[in-house]
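The instructor's notes for this session suggest beginning with a concrete chain rather than abstract definitions. Hand out the sequence below and ask the class to guess, before any prediction is shown, which regions might be ordered.
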Amino acid sequence: MVTVNCNIAPDYFLDQMDMAEVDACIKAYIKNFQNAWEQTRAICFFVASSQSVKELQITKLMPFPWDEKEISNEGEAEKLTYEDIKQLKIRSEEIKAKLFSKIT
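After discussion, reveal the predicted structure:
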């Protein structure tokens, strides 16, 4: 999903990017995802506030998991093994083959 939303080729993502680039790409993807939902929540909050006589709280109207704590995976991320990377490469090739078989 990250490769599609970040417009990165799966083979480049899996074979050529170093871990710092992968980490930065995933963090940017998560931040963009959160920003999109925050924008949606703000719009809903303003619409609901204009129609309500009660004072609403934006975090109570649409609570998100990141409201509780800031997402921080520093040191907590599961380490990928070479077997995991091998399986991801195989899966990436399968997806690529399915996508390109539909085009031709």
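Then share the key points. Residues 19-51 form the longest helix (33 residues). The two ends are 23 Å apart (CA to CA).
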